[in-house]
Amino acid sequence: MKRRKSVTGILIALAICLLVSIFSSELPDGLEMVMEKLGISRHQQKASQSADFSPLPEYRFPRINSPIASTALAALAGMAVVFGAVVAIGMLLRKYKERKKERPTNRWA
Amino acid sequence: MHIPDGFLDPKTTLLCYGISAGWIAIALKRTKGRLGEKTVPLMGVMGAFIFAAQMFNFPIAGGTSGHLLGGFLAALLLGVWEGSTVMAAVVLIQCLVFQDGGLLALGANLLNIAILGAISGLWIVKLSLLRNPSKKLFLLACGAGAWLSVVIPAAACAGELGLSGIAPWKTTLVAMTGIHALIGVVEAIITILIIAVIKKIRPDLLRMSSDKA
To answer: Which B positions 22-81 lie with beta carbon below 8 A of chain A?
Structure first.
């Protein structure tokens, strides 16, 4: 049952990635549009300054020529990283409680 | 609406980093030890879904696009503190891995998308729950909450640009809330659809949040 759920989840994730990479609009978003309208877009700093930090800039997987595949892979990678990070934070937050619970029993033992 | 680097002045940058860091510290403290066994994977799935949803830009009026923010949905299903923690993880990864939103502007983006996105709509649903709403009214309240959870961060974004002195805040405010009022309608419709589906197939997820409310 649990395994079936995970498989369903992964299939849904794959479907979402494909959907995003095929249909996502390339138009500027609300903030970009407003900045262009106000004529302040030029203030944007070149992203290259922090290039060392960003393995997948602009939601593209490097060295893959097909834009759809490149975006789908980036989406998949991002979903995996976010899932992993959030579950890790959640597990740490849960663990903390158990440790805290133990402390008083140790003290009075 | 991720702000890139180069638009915020040091004062605004510091202020936003301060508020966001403080909020996240409180959120971690409040959720510490209170997470149920089933909440953790749910948080992970929520985070992954919101990340993907934010990549999905739909065209909206006048050559502009918008995407789902999802902060309201996260807060509704997980609670405000858990929801903003998940949203913060998404915004952080968008910034560090995908270069969406500047590193210096990260504080502001956390404040707008992760924090204001999670808190600005939920109170309507909580108010509606006091009156034991019908299904229609509950979904309507969710829609209103989702709409606010887009428009208020947009207004805050305009405020931050104004505070930085880079653009007149009045013009920015009108332009930002105007376009995001439209994007918010899409957010509201999608959120209502998602909640209606969840209500049908996993009503336990919604009960969890209304217990907390």
So the answer is: 28, 31-35, 37, 39-41, 43-52, 55-60, 62-67
**B1 located within any domain:** no
Residue B4 lies in a domain: no
Q: How many domains does chain B have?
A: 1
Strand, coil or helix: what is B137?
Answer: helix
pLDDT in tens, B121-152: 999 999 999 888 899 999 999 999 999 999 99
Which A-chain residues 41-100 have CB contacts (< 8 A) with chain B? 43-45, 47, 49-50, 53-59, 71, 74-75, 77-87, 89-91, 93-94, 96-97, 100
Looking at the DSSP bridge assignments, the partners of residue B67 are B57
Contact, B2 vs B106, CB < 8 A?
A: no
CB pair distance less than 8 Å for A40 and B183: no
Q: Find the domain containing B74 and state its range.
A: 10-212
Residue B33's Cβ-count burial label (10 Å; 0-12, 13-18, 19+) is middle
pLDDT digits (tens, 9 = 90+) for A13-55: 899 999 998 988 889 899 999 998 888 888 887 554 555 556 7
Average the pLDDT over each of A10-14, B42-46, B87-91, B175-179 and give the range with the smallest value: A10-14
* Between B205 and B162, the higher pLDDT residue: B162
**Any CB–CB contact under 8 A between B86 and chain A?**
yes
Does B3 fall in a domain? no
- Residue B69 and residue B34 in contact, taking contact as beta carbons nearer than 8 Å: no
CATH number at residue B179: 1.10.1760.20
ipTM: 0.90
